[in-house]
C-alpha cells in the first residue's frame, strides 16, 4: 500500500466544472446579501411609518369588517333621529354601496384634505422659520453683549427714556461684570453693578 504523504488531510480533488459552479453560487449568495442589505437600508427611514400603518390597519380591521357587513337598509332609530335622520339614512346607503372601501368614502373630500394638509405644513414651516429667526436674534444679542446698536434701537421709539431703560439691562461700558458670576447679563439682576 503506497499512499502519498499528507494525502489523508486534503480534500478530494474537484473538477473545474464543480469549482465554477461553486464560485457562481457563492457570487449569487453575496449579491443576494448585498441586495438584501440595500433594501433594508432604503426602507430603514420608513420602518416606523410601516409599523405604525400596520398597527392602524390591525386596530381598525373590526370597523372595516363591520362596514362590509352592513345591512342594506338603515336601522329605524337612525332614520328617526331629529334633524339628521334623512342624511344619516342616505349616508348609510352610500356606506353599504362602498362595502368597506375607505378610499371611495374619502374621495369626494380629497381636495379639502389636501388643502388642510398643505395648510398644516405651511404653518409648521412658518413656525420653524420663526424659531430660527428668534435664535438668530438671540445670537446677535449674545455676541454683542447688549452694547452698540441695542441702545440706539431703543432710543428710536422711546427717546432718552428708551436709552436709559436699555442701559439698565446691560453691563456698564459693555464690559463683563467682575462682581457677578453671570457675566454679560447678570448686572440686570444684581445690585452691585
| Proportion in helices | 55-70%
Mean pLDDT rating: 76
Main beta-sheet strand count, sense and barrel state: none
Helical run tally: 8
Number of DSSP E strands: 0
Query: Distance between termini?
Result: 107 Å
Identify the overall geometry: flat
**Which band does the percent of strand residues land in?**
under 5%
| Topology pattern, helix = H, strand = E | HHHHHHHH
Kindly provide the radius of gyration, computed on alpha-carbon positions and rounded to a whole number of angstroms. Answer: 37 Å
Structure description:
There is one protein chain. It is built from 8 helices and no strands. 66% of the residues lie in helices and 0% in strands. The protein has helices spanning 16-43, 47-68, 76-79, 85-98, 102-106, 110-144, 149-158, 160-168. Helix 7 crosses helix 8 (160-168). Among the domains are: 107-144; 146-189, no CATH class.
In short:
This protein is an all-alpha fold.
List its traits.
193 residues, mainly alpha, 8 helices, 66% helix, flat, disordered C terminus
What does the secondary structure layout of this molecule look like, with pairings?
Layout: H1 16-43, H2 47-68, H3 76-79, H4 85-98, H5 102-106, H6 110-144, H7 149-158, H8 160-168
Helix pairs in contact: 7-8
Amino acid at each position: 500500500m503506497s499512499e502519498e504523504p499528507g494525502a489523508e488531510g486534503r480534500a478530494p480533488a474537484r473538477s473545474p466544472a464543480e469549482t465554477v459552479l461553486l464560485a457562481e453560487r457563492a457570487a449569487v449568495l453575496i449579491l443576494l446579501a448585498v441586495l438584501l442589505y440595500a433594501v433594508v437600508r432604503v426602507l430603514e427611514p420608513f420602518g416606523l411609518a410601516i409599523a405604525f400603518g400596520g398597527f392602524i390597519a390591525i386596530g381598525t380591521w373590526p370597523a372595516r369588517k363591520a362596514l362590509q357587513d352592513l345591512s342594506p337598509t338603515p336601522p329605524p332609530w337612525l332614520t328617526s333621529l331629529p334633524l339628521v335622520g334623512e342624511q344619516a339614512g342616505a349616508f348609510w346607503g352610500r356606506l353599504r354601496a362602498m362595502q368597506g372601501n375607505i378610499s371611495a368614502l374619502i374621495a369626494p373630500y380629497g381636495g379639502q384634505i389636501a388643502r388642510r394638509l398643505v395648510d398644516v405644513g405651511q404653518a409648521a414651516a412658518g413656525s420653524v422659520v420663526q424659531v430660527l429667526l428668534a435664535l438668530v436674534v438671540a445670537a446677535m444679542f449674545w455676541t454683542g453683549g447688549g452694547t452698540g446698536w441695542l441702545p440706539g434701537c431703543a432710543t428710536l421709539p422711546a427717546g432718552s427714556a428708551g436709552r436709559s431703560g436699555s442701559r439698565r439691562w446691560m453691563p456698564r461700558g459693555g464690559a463683563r461684570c467682575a462682581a457677578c458670576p453671570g457675566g454679560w447679563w447678570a448686572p440686570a439682576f444684581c445690585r452691585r453693578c
